[in-house]
User: What shape does this take?
Amino acid sequence: MKIIKYLFALLLIVSLASCNSDDDSDTPYLLTSENFAGIYNFTFLFANNETTIEIGGVPQTIPSTSEGSVFEVEAIFNQNGTFSIVGQFLLTTTITGSDPDEDIILLDENGTFQLNDSTKTIIISGAQELLNGTFNVTLFTENEIRMTKEETIVDGNITTDLVIELRFVKN
Assistant: This one.
């Protein structure tokens, strides 16, 4: 009887150790032209901006934020590496210590993009500054893209540090 108990315990341990869920898919959704291609709605924009200017040799830093809303923007990404983005949205920019400034941003842009699945980046060219440059893809699923860009722009004695996040939802 002891042998049966040991065999049963061993069988139970082996069964539990070898269990896995066949329904779980650990396969990541690859950042390829085929997967990326489609029609998307532009749904989110947030930028954190810190501009530093030297006045009389003393650096002055001016922080600001920009946030998009009321999006009516459609982006089409094609398998051949081209894109178009058309529409408008409201951009609210707040410089610390002042009232918010609202602008309607009109987009009618065409350009190209390059994807890199191993580095999870997308390089966008041919568009306005907002959509130009190298973005880190922080989320890529069958239905959504989230990307961020961090850059420092130096123009004479003015240095701007920019962090921007964009989100798109596939139709």
About this structure: Residues 33-170 form a domain with the Lipocalin fold (CATH 2.40.128).
